[in-house]
Design brief:
Helix content: 25-40%
Radius of gyration: 23 Å
Bound molecules: succinic acid
Shape: globular
CATH architecture of the largest domain: 3-Layer(aba) Sandwich
Strand content: 15-25%
Number of strands: 19
Number of helices: 14
Number of domains: 2
Largest sheet: 7 strands, mixed
CATH superfamily of the largest domain: Aldehyde Dehydrogenase, Chain A, domain 1
CATH topology of the largest domain: Aldehyde Dehydrogenase, Chain A, domain 1
CATH class of the largest domain: Alpha Beta
Strand order of the largest sheet: 13-14-15-12-11-16-17
Low-confidence stretches: none
Length: 484
């Protein structure tokens, strides 16, 4: 808590737990035990309007800077994020629960987007198109879209902010971010570091809301906001889409997933087990890209189950700041109840329990790393996004069967399969209806690749060289009368 105590002194809207502020505020708690760790002053809907107006003013000067100047500020911010990695990691662990090693990994991952888009800022190239008229040229240019609003989740309190803020700033936009109510502290620290890096006031503003629906309504209806970028559930994404309709905002939506994880009989089973552990138990299973449905070819099913169980026994459940912890708590009691209900429903309908299977005896919001076998389609866990450390396993017979099963969902974010036959790798990779396919890997996230989903998993792509376009508009100028 050393780092956090020091940071609180520098953040005007954050108070330690002995100093409850008079102004409206929310309490940030440690998910492991629900104990308060800080108070944060909140912004109401009226104040949010003022924040947007400030962002509008900042946009005109920030977008007028050269790409090289924006790049310099972003590079400095990147360096400060890494220099403050210990602080940010501790805060991520305290407010989201993830183990400190994972939190450090998240800071590096988050910072990588800032470095990437600092460089991409200089490559927002336009085009000259041959005109269909005499004495004419057609010029296509990219321009910053304007003020952006971002609504970000608690499961990656740093990386989901940088993945939106870095391309927005690189493009020349200003941005207002509403972080999740569970995890505002890391967002406020990042805002301070951005100012320290030389970002002009008003260009990046964090609004912490105690009434997220009201603040969200302002962000999605204000005419000055030109784009909404949201990461969260499909249900909330659909609501925000509706709210954005009246002002026809551009949308970037990274929504829920229901990732299949397929193991074919020709796979390297040890590698598949390692990938399953990485994909399923990262952040206690609380990621949109977590393996959600395991399909194992029946000829290798028993071997996979036994080996996975041995690896799951190695996982260490505990407080994220405790040395050696590899799986932390769930974010809150509601999450614990939801996961427990999914497991009970599966058990009552015939699922086997190979490991875990219940809330941990140590109390708090911990759920045991779990393996359920013989999942059937009538179980809720077969269709819902689990968001917990539960591997739900089923067997399949043929390639055609498993592709049908894997695609039988409204979601289309991440998918994974393990196989060695090259023909199969191409066939299955093309047939999976997902925005991202991990082949012989359980980890697909990187700043260089386009992150995003199809179907009800979202719109647009984050990261990669495609990610900048989502924050820019195309304009074409028809230049005529140029002479011969
Ligand atoms: C998410 O869970 O929304 C993001 C996961 C990632 O970037 O790896």
């Amino acid at each position: 808590m050393i780092h956090l105590k020091n940071a609180i002194k520098q953040l005007p809207v954050v108070y330690d737990i002995n100093t409850r502020p008079k102004a409206p505020h929310l309490t940030v708690t440690d998910p492991a035990n629900s104990r308060p760790i800080a108070f944060v002053e909140t912004t109401d809907s009226k104040e949010t309007e003022a924040v947007i107006e400030k962002a509008e003013k900042a946009f005109s000067s920030w977008s007028a800077k050269t790409a090289k100047d924006r790049c310099k500020v972003l590079k400095k911010w990147h360096d400060l994020l890494l220099e403050n990695s210990d602080l940010l990691a501790e805060v991520i662990t305290l407010e989201s629960g993830k183990p400190i090693q994972e939190a450090k990994g998240e800071v590096a991952y988050g910072a990588s987007y800032v470095e990437w888009f600092a460089e991409e800022a200089k490559r927002a190239y336009g085009e000259m198109v041959p005109a269909p008229w005499q004495d004419a040229e057609i010029l296509v240019m990219k321009q910053a879209i304007g003020v952006v609003a971002a609504i970000t989740p608690w499961n990656f309190p740093v990386a989901m902010i940088t993945r939106k803020v870095a391309p927005a700033l690189a493009a020349g936009c200003s941005i207002v971010v509403k972080p999740a109510e569970d995890t505002p502290l890391s967002a406020l620290i990042m805002e301070k570091l951005a100012l320290d890096a030389g970002l002009p006031h008003g260009t990046l503003q964090i609004v912490v809301a105690d009434n997220p629906a009201k603040v969200g309504a302002v962000l999605t209806s204000h005419s000055a906001v030109k784009k909404l970028s949201f990461t969260g559930s499909t249900a909330v994404g659909k609501l925000l889409m509706k709210q954005c309709a009246s002002t026809v905002k551009k949308l970037g939506l990274e929504l829920g997933g229901n990732a299949p994880f397929i193991v074919f009989e020709d796979a390297d089973i040890d590698a598949a087990v390692a990938g399953a552990i990485a994909s399923k138990y990262r952040n206690a299973g609380q990621t949109c890209v977590c393996a959600n449905r395991f399909y194992i070819q029946s000829t290798v099913y028993d071997e996979f189950v036994e080996k996975l169980a041995l690896s799951v026994q190695e996982l260490k459940l505990g407080h994220g700041l405790k040395e050696g912890t590899t799986v932390g708590p769930l974010i809150n009691q509601a999450a614990l109840l939801k996961v427990s209900a999914l497991v009970e429903d599966a058990k009552s309908k015939g699922a086997g329990v190979k490991s875990g299977g219940q809330a941990a005896k140590m109390g708090g919001n911990y759920f045991e790393p779990t393996i359920l076998t013989d999942i059937t389609l009538d179980m809720d866990i077969a269709v819902e996004e689990i968001f917990g450390p539960i591997a739900a396993l089923n067997r399949f017979e043929t390639e055609q069967d498993v592709i049908k099963l894997a695609n039988d969902t409204p979601y289309g974010l991440a998918s994974y399969f393990y196989a060695r036959d090259v023909g199969r790798i191409f066939r299955v990779g093309k047939a999976l209806e997902y925005g991202m396919v991990g082949v012989n890997t359980g980890i697909i996230s990187t700043e260089v690749a386009p992150f995003g989903g199809i179907k009800e998993s979202g719109l647009g792509r984050e990261g990669s060289h495609y990610g900048l376009d989502d924050f820019m508009e195309l304009k074409y100028m028809a230049l005529t009368g140029l002479g011969r």
